[in-house]
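Suppose you are handed a protein chain with no further information: no name, no annotation, nothing but its sequence. What can you learn? This example shows the usual starting point.
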Amino acid sequence: MNPDLKKERDGASFDPEKIVNFLYGGPDRVRRRREVVSLALDDPDFQHEDLNFMSREQQYETQLKKSILVVQKQKELGLVSPEDMGNYNYNGVFKSMSGPFGLHTSMFLPTLRGQATAEQKAKWLKMAENYAIIGTYAQTEMGHGTFLRGLETTSTYDPQTQEFVLNTPTPTGTKWWPGCLGKTSNYCVLMAQLYIHGKSYGPHPFMVQIRSLQDHKPLPGVTVGDIGPKFGYAGNDNGFLRFDNVRIPRDNMLMKYSRVMSFFCYLKTVLTPTTESVFLYLHMYSVETAPRPGRPSCAIDEASVGGPTWGVLQNRQPEPQVLDYVTQQYKLFPYLAAAYAFMLAARSMIFVYFRSMEKIGRGDITVLPELHALSSGLKSLSSWVMNAGIEECRMACGGHGYSHASGIPSIYMEHTPAATYEGENTVLMLQTARYLMKSYNQSLQGEKLAGSVAYLSGVQPVPAAGRTRNVLDLNVLIQAFQHRAARLVHEAALQLKKERQTGKDQPDAWNAAAVDLVKAAKAHSQYFVVKNFADRLTDPALDSAARAVLTRLCQLYALHDIVNSSGDFLEDGYLTGADIRQARRHINALMAKLRPDAVALVDAFDFPDGILNSILGRYDGNVYQHLLEWAKASPLNKTDVHESYYKYLKPFLEANRAKL
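A reasonable first move is to predict its three-dimensional structure. Written in structure tokens, the prediction is:
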């Protein structure tokens, strides 16, 4: 153990294990999580050359091989619970990245379970669950992502043959981006516009075989392939897909909620959640995974070592640790606090999600609008903050942060797409805003609201008399965030009304007020995160020391947002200039108190080196010798003289020397 890092850990004011248990559901679940992750990390079958040293083709082949091994070994080990499989797969084997089977498990299987009839499940689900077929979910098109109603792929019913005819009428209608599609899948759930007798009934899901089960070649009329290199996810075969008069049986339309009868009749049940529940799960998963890359463990561990570990200044005094600089703390500590805030928000979101799914399973879909609004807002907010945090951590590591050895470039490439996949963030925020506008109007009509929008009931946001508050008081902070959210919702509603009064129709008025609507949705989501963080501090699982350090993180998270968004709180006089100045002073004081606990707080995320996959973030802190060893392993260093020297550089140098 590096002595500087050991000193950091020995000086912590709390036992990290207490917070580990708090974050992951208690000692038993923590033990099980570590046991399952170790099964993967210690398995020699999953050891291979650093992916950064591989070509894209090699990465895909390696990740495909690992995906197959995961399926086989999970069966051998008896890992059947979603939690065990998630820890083994994403934490242990793929280190939170997605392999070539990612869309099979995250979208294809859930859609079959949720959208297929009992007869259809009997036909396809067992094969899919046992990997006799591999599927993906083909919705996004080259020209249409979030705008589902604009999808161009068509499925036209032919009553003579009782078949659907699939076509891609335009280049922009090409399915584009689905993971596992390029080279892996032989089936897909296809979202296509349903046409019956020339009339469109909107997008519907269809089960479509796209490759032969004998030789894996594309079936007649199907054009499918890989979309090429991307910013990240080199081991995943995101693909494109086109259809030219491909016929599928009528029974291949997933018909749990709507169906086409053989005699041309279209039937739709009252209960029509379509694929929304699947996307709700993905939004919830996005909120859960957002803190992972944002946890600045790489930056904090390297900074605590403080440059050349054994270096001394000219006066022979030890070099100061980089993390002792307040500017470095101001870069990192707010994102450390945010990582905790979003992790706790995710835990609450998971609870709400599964409770809501039970109600939906009983036929009660009234919970869907709020669940969708909350998950959309949190997914957007958390991924926005995550993206900014990754870049801040990279810069905080200096030049080393630019190296793949730090792990940060891979984190950045693998996680920044969260701002656009499973719903583009701004569009999702506007969906949250739509729910807020509806709820706000209901409150004006005297309806009592509940859940995450209860604070809008009867609220007419007015400035409180300007007075200095104790902005360290969590109740004061919660009230401030609640007031901001309520005021911005109120003002967005007024702006929307004003736009309508100018003669604009609803879509144009909505577009004109969109900036105010997004701001209101973001404030609503931020209020939920702050309130949830504070509420979770009352958990009896926390001892006094752990509660004290988490309270400081909660205060820092809230105060940092207040200072950065001070205009929102000053605009109507709710907070005063004195309040904001007080908040700035408290931020500095909180960072000073958190400084001795910084490394222990990162340790409490319980990421072993095998998951973190960062030389700078090594638990033992022995960075520099391992950094040199990693560089030596580069393929460019396999020989002292690269073959290109003989092909290009040697003739060039010799020719130039001959001229002298």
